[in-house]
Amino acid sequence: MRRRRRFRAAEAAAAVLLLALGTACGSRLPESDFQRDDRTHTRVPAPGDGSPIRVGIVASATSPVGGNAFTGPRDGARAWFERLNERGGIDGRRVEVRECDDGGSGVGNNECVRRLIDDGVVALVATTALDYAGAPLVSRARVPDVGGQPIGAAYATYPHLYSVYGTSAPRNGKPGWDGKLYGGTEVYRYFKREHGARTAAVVSYNQAASAAYARLVERGLRAEGYRVVTEQVDFALPNFRAVAADLKEQGADLVFDAIDGHGNARLCQAMDDVGAEVTAKVTNVQNWTSAVEDAYRDAPRCRNALWATGSSRNFEDTGHPAVREFRDATEGLETHAQWQLEGWAAAKWFTDAAGACAKEPEGITRACVDARVGRADGYTAGGLLLPVGFRVSPEPPTHSRTCLSVARWQDGQGWVSQGEMTENCFDVPQLAYEP
């Protein structure tokens, strides 16, 4: 089972609101804490002397999309490393986390990347950047970026960058295959097969990125034989009530969107107001959080029709030991989210690779961690992720057997898993698109 990157609604919403912000991060350490890495000409912590293992986490914490929109993976990774250090670290060495908020801008991201590389981090972990402008620098420095969120096309473009979802793209400096990425139709196949859905609506803003993503969703739905209803609202003055009324009139079974979280909540409220009931209001992994009841407090019917799909195990699935460990370590967080679990999985991935490197003569180095992660073929972080790999396919995919994690929100229970994610699998076509 090979997971391939899918362009998601979060990307469209982020593109809608992208602004240029600057930030700074990090600090320098004494020269005695470093030795020179002859391969990258960058100072790195000396192995084997008990010094901390430094990792960097870049997150667009203060991005224009809004507070906490991009902090979930950071929080999950931070929790993993805190628990790891309590247990003795890696081979007796504690992990020292260097965090950097890039402000959601390319300028800020470049600054974060430069400082963290200069500070001698062995790897970046759980990167979640609205504008990953520093990706080429990370790749040139051969710093492994482990388990990052593929918000843009960087993880399907540059070597040494490893998305939490994996990719089979060549990563030769061009996105995907000659500038094209591919996404499957497994989400649409799932609702068609499991719930008999036949009519689907796609709601977008009258904004280029939002509209482009909506067109991609429409293509996938039509490829699966759906009747598709398109709805577009003004970004500045959206009339969600009119959209909701038309959804009711058209008899939509499913609603997909290319709008932000606030817009989704307003759309759901409008659907409740006009009595538009659907089989599923489908959202994405970024909105898969425990804050649903509050965010959708004015839309109880629509709220209980919310479904989320992704490539990782439901954070509410505490019957699974790996999820239970995550929840125990993060019980102090105000809310829980799927992106936190994926950040936790990314940090575990780095730890597994670094632990293996500790047994090698060269110790825990950038080159060793990079080689370990790059050879991954079926990595699951103890069952938290669908199998992840980076085996290159020279030709773009036409079809793929793809699995997905599915959960439905239910008041009083939270997100309820719908089947086992390793069994929600479909042979589906892969559709090309340009990032």
Instruction: Please name the fourth-level CATH homologous superfamily of the largest domain.
Output: Response regulator
Q: How can the largest sheet be summarized? A: 7 strands, mixed
Q: Which regions have little confidence, pLDDT < 50, spanning 5+ residues?
A: 1-43
Query: What's the pLDDT, averaged over the residues?
Result: 90
Q: For the largest sheet, list the strands in their spatial order.
A: 10-9-11-12-13-17-18
Number of helices: 13
Task: Kindly describe this structure.
With 435 residues, the chain is α/β, with parallel strands linked by helices. The protein has two domains: 9-180 and 320-389, Response regulator (Rossmann fold), CATH 3.40.50.2300; 183-315 and 400-433, Rossmann fold, CATH 3.40.50.2300. Helices cover 32% and strands 21% of the residues. It has helices at residues 9-17, 72-86, 106-118, 135-140, 186-195, 208-223, 240-250, 261-274, 292-295, 300-303, 321-329, 338-357, 366-374, and strands at 34-37, 42-45, 53-59, 95-101, 123-125, 145-148, 161-163, 181-184, 199-205, 227-233, 254-258, 280-283, 306-310, 377-379, 388-389, 399-403, 405-410, 414-417, 425-433. The strands form five sheets. It has a seven-stranded mixed β-sheet, sandwiched between helices. Strands 4-3-5-6-7 form a five-stranded parallel β-sheet. A three-stranded antiparallel β-sheet has the order 8-19-16. A hairpin with a 3-residue loop joins strand 17 (405-410) and strand 18. The longest helix is centred in the C-terminal third of the chain and has 20 residues, at 338-357. 55% of the residues are buried. The model is unreliable at 1-43 (pLDDT under 50). Residues 52-412 form the Leucine-binding protein domain. This is ABC transporter substrate-binding protein. Keywords: Signal. Pfam families: Peripla_BP_6. Residues 30-41 have a biased composition (Basic and acidic residues).
